Amino acid sequence: MWKSAKHLTLLAGAAILVSNSLLMTPQVAVAADEAKPQDGKAVTEDRKKGNCVSCHDYAGAEMPGNIGPKLENMKTRYPDKADLRARIWDETKFNPNTIMPPFGKHKILSEEEIDKVVDFIHSL
Question: Which residue in 25, 40, 58, 96 has its CB near the most CB atoms, within 10 A?
Answer without folding.
Answer: 40
